[in-house]
Each structure stands twice: as C-alpha cells, then as structure tokens.
C-alpha cells in the first residue's frame, strides 16, 4: 500500500465524518500495489442503504481530505444500495480496507 499512515488516517476520518461510522473505505488501483509507481489515490467507499446526496458528499469528502493533507490526486467512487453495480465497484471491492 503506497500511502502514508498520516494519509490513511486523514482519509478514513474524512470519509467517516461525512458518510458516518459504518462507511467502509478501501484503497484500490495502482496505490494498492507496492510494485507500481506514481498514480492517483483511488478510494472506494461503500455505505449501506440509500443516500440521495452521494455526489455532493463526494465533493465534501475531497474537500475535507484536502484540508487535512493538501491537494492530492484523488478519485473517489461511492457505492450505496441505490447505485447499480458496475465494473469499477467490483474493482473497488477488491481493494485494501483502510
């Protein structure tokens, strides 16, 4: 896993502050692979139930992370029960639980 402990803590705190304590955060993509270099931070967030404000909350999470760590190249995918399963969600589920 190629994020620092400080980044991990800030990411998890930011997600839980916006999405609640039951939200699960996983790191996937190139940063989850120690043999790779570079790349943005790909985050997969899974929440139970339905949240009609997912798009707005995605922006809020990014803003909160940027407040704590500065601007970083981050992509966030959030899945709740109202979002149809797609390939990106399956890849996110394979990620490393933060």
What tags apply to this protein structure?
4 strands, alpha+beta, 3 helices, four-stranded mixed β-sheet, 98 residues, Beta Polymerase, domain 2
Tell me what the structure shows:
Helix content is 39%, strand content 19%. It has 98 residues and is of the alpha+beta class. The chain has one domain (5-97): Beta Polymerase, domain 2 (2-Layer Sandwich). Strands 3-2-1-4 form a 4-stranded mixed beta sheet, sandwiched between helices. Strand 2 (41-46), helix 2 (54-69) and strand 3 form a beta-alpha-beta unit. Helix 1 (5-19) packs antiparallel against helix 2 (54-69). The protein is globular and about 35 Å long. The termini are close together.
Quick synopsis:
With 98 residues, the chain is of the alpha+beta class. It has helices spanning 5-19, 54-69, 87-93; strands spanning 24-28, 41-46, 74-79, 96-97. It has one domain (5-97): 2-Layer Sandwich (Beta Polymerase, domain 2), CATH 3.30.460.
């Amino acid at each position: 896993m190629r994020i620092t402990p400080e980044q991990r803590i800030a990411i998890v705190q930011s997600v839980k502050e916006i999405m609640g304590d039951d939200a699960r955060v996983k790191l996937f993509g190139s940063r989850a692979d120690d043999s790779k270099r570079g790349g943005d931070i790909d985050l997969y967030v899974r929440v139970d139930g339905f949240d009609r404000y997912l798009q707005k909350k995605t922006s809020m999470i990014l803003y909160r992370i940027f407040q704590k760590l500065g601007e970083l190249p981050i992509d966030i995918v959030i899945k709740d029960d109202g979002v149809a399963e797609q390939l990106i969600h399956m890849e996110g589920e394979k990620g490393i639980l933060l």
